[in-house]
């Protein structure tokens, strides 16, 4: 498969040489290095200095570097790229020196461990950086590459195998690639952080979450299922979110007394990873979780669609309390305007927005999303 242009590339290129360091976060294998190489390929090799933070020689050279040291290292180059920048001690201060003292240099740094990289960048680069997220390939990126019609016909494959670039590029090898990705890369950043030792507790939590996509999760229930205490469950959930393994969706609460206010659903950022975790790549016709997978897919694709907007809408689900509980799968709030969608795998299934919601929020825009017309939801 030919190179697939990423949505954020045009924005990155537009901001080149604006005096700001560009920081690209995202999970391992999501295509950050490939995208940056494509972005800087328009410049000559003599214009780009590429450093890899995984290389111990690079770490030794850059750690504690002075302004003069940067000048010697850069020479006449105009672009500095640091891949896997989170591995370099003091990386934020090092890049501050370049941004402040050598302003003609365009800095691009990438890292797979978002929370570690953000912590190291935050204070030194305050006001000096632009941040971007690169997740696995989105529906809009794939549709732009192969056409909307063809990509809409691939939705079952996306539910089973997700959209990591290497997986999309190698049809027939999806299960092996995903098993390796989930086993070798998925938790690497988490185990390397915060003194966490490799244990069965985190694995049990990820599996428990994988079996509950599309449903509200209870921290106490997760603690009981995994043998972890609630505090550890909270800690692991936070790390899994920051490493782009899962995405938590909170509950919307506005006018009604009986709306739940603290509920949470947890979706997987990529369904291929989720299916590798539970070891199930069975076709949708043989599954009992197909409806939840469809919901997970659409929620996450909508998140990708909104992720790099300057002011993205706030996402939620909506539910009232028992005994007559009513629910809406996905709600967005943007500039005081509400939009709500029910997500159904079966186009023939009867689906409607609850009357309780419509009465409470009469100005809300509403709709139903099915496989027959879902491209509108993901491209609007």
Low-confidence stretches: none
- Quick one: how many beta strands? 11
- The CA-CA distance between the termini, in Å, is 26 Å
pLDDT averaged residue by residue: 91
Short précis:
This protein has 380 residues and is α/β, with parallel strands linked by helices. Helices cover 42% and strands 16% of the residues.
Task: Please give a structural write-up.
By secondary structure, the chain is of the alpha/beta class. The protein has helices spanning 9-14, 32-40, 56-62, 67-74, 91-101, 114-121, 139-146, 148-152, 155-161, 165-169, 174-185, 188-192, 200-210, 219-226, 230-242, 271-278, 290-307, 355-360, 374-379, and strands at 21-25, 48-52, 79-83, 106-111, 129-133, 246-250, 264-268, 314-319, 327-334, 337-343, 365-369. It has a five-stranded parallel sheet, with helices on both faces. A hairpin with a 7-residue loop joins strand 8 (314-319) and strand 9.
Descriptive labels:
four-stranded mixed sheet; 19 helices; alpha/beta; globular; five-stranded parallel sheet; single chain; 380 residues
List the helices and strands and how they pair.
Blueprint: H1 9-14, E1 21-25, H2 32-40, E2 48-52, H3 56-62, H4 67-74, E3 79-83, H5 91-101, E4 106-111, H6 114-121, E5 129-133, H7 139-146, H8 148-152, H9 155-161, H10 165-169, H11 174-185, H12 188-192, H13 200-210, H14 219-226, H15 230-242, E6 246-250, E7 264-268, H16 271-278, H17 290-307, E8 314-319, E9 327-334, E10 337-343, H18 355-360, E11 365-369, H19 374-379
Parallel strand pairs: 1-4, 1-5, 2-3, 3-4, 10-11
Antiparallel strand pairs: 6-7, 8-9, 9-10
Helix pairs in contact: 9-16, 11-16, 13-14, 14-15
């Amino acid at each position: 498969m030919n190179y697939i242009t990423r949505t954020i590339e045009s924005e990155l290129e537009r901001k080149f040489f604006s005096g700001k360091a560009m920081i690209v976060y995202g999970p391992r294998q999501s295509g950050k290095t490939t995208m940056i190489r494509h972005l800087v390929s328009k410049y000559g090799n003599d214009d780009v200095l590429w450093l890899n933070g995984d290389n111990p020689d690079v770490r030794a050279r850059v750690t504690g570097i002075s302004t003069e040291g940067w000048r010697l290292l850069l020479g006449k180059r105009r672009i500095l790229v640091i891949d896997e920048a989170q591995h370099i001690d003091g990386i934020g201060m090092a890049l501050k020196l370049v941004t402040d003292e050598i302003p003609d240099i365009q800095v691009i740094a990438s890292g797979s461990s978002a929370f570690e990289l953000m912590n190291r960048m935050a204070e030194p680069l305050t006001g000096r950086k632009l941040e971007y997220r690169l997740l696995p390939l989105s529906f809009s990126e794939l549709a732009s590459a192969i056409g909307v019609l063809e990509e809409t016909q691939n939705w079952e494959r996306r539910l089973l195998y997700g959209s990591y670039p290497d997986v999309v590029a190698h049809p027939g090898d999806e299960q092996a690639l995903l098993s390796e990705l989930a086993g070798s890369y998925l938790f690497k950043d988490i185990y390397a952080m915060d003194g966490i030792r490799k244990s069965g507790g985190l694995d049990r939590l990820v599996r428990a979450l994988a079996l509950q996509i599309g449903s509200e999760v209870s921290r106490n229930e997760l603690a009981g299922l995994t043998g972890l205490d609630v505090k550890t469950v909270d800690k692991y959930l936070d790390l899994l979110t920051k490493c782009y393994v899962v995405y938590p969706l909170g509950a919307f609460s506005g006018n009604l007394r009986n709306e739940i206010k603290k509920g949470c659903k947890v979706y997987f950022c990529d369904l291929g990873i989720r299916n590798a975790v539970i070891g199930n790549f069975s076709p949708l016709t043989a599954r009992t979780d197909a409806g939840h997978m469809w919901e997970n897919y659409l929620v996450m694709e909508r998140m990708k669609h909104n992720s790099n907007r300057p002011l993205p809408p706030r996402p939620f689900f909506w539910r009232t309390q028992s005994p007559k509980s009513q629910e809406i799968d996905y709600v967005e709030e943007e500039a005081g305007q509400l939009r709500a969608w029910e997500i159904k795998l079966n186009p023939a299934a009867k689906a409607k927005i609850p009357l309780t919601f419509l009465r409470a929020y009469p100005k809300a825009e509403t709709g139903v999303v099915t496989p027959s017309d879902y491209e509108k939801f993901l491209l609007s």
